[in-house]
Amino acid sequence: MGKSVIIINGPNLNLLGTREPEIYGAVTLKDIEALTRAHGETLGLEIDFFQSNKEGELVDAIQGAAGNHGGIILNAAAYTHTSVALQDAIKATGVPTIEVHLSNVFSREEFRHHSYISPVAAGVICGFGAKGYVLALDALADIID
Ligand code: DQA
Prior knowledge:
Bound molecules: 1,3,4-trihydroxy-5-OXO-cyclohexanecarboxylic acid
Radius of gyration: 14 Å
CATH superfamily: Dehydroquinase, class II
Number of strands: 5
CATH topology: Rossmann fold
Strand order of the largest sheet: 2-1-3-4-5
Largest sheet: 5 strands, parallel
């Protein structure tokens, strides 16, 4: 179980590829899944990949990581900026979590500068597009070891 990671993606990330390409680029969520699965293999990490537009399902996925995954990579998307429930879930499970954003949220609207995830995350990676997920995997591999 220690060598397994779950990558959890929040609302509207299923639309990557067509959604605001000037911000998020042309990469699709399927591309990110393939990229992370391939990189996970090089690190000896098994990858579970999940996306939901529903806050409660994201809470369930975080809770489900306890005892099943050694780490979480979370792009909570818009819920990053609103969700006490996601912060509580991360705290409750105690599974090391890395917060990822494709865009540099600090160069965007002010409401994106606050995160409910950051205070309970092991670290935060933003602004590097899909590569952020790969960087997060490298970081988690060290944490899990
Ligand atoms: C995002 C940034 C969030 O502010 C936004 O709501 C998203 C995507 C990112 O990956 O850059 O949906 O998490």
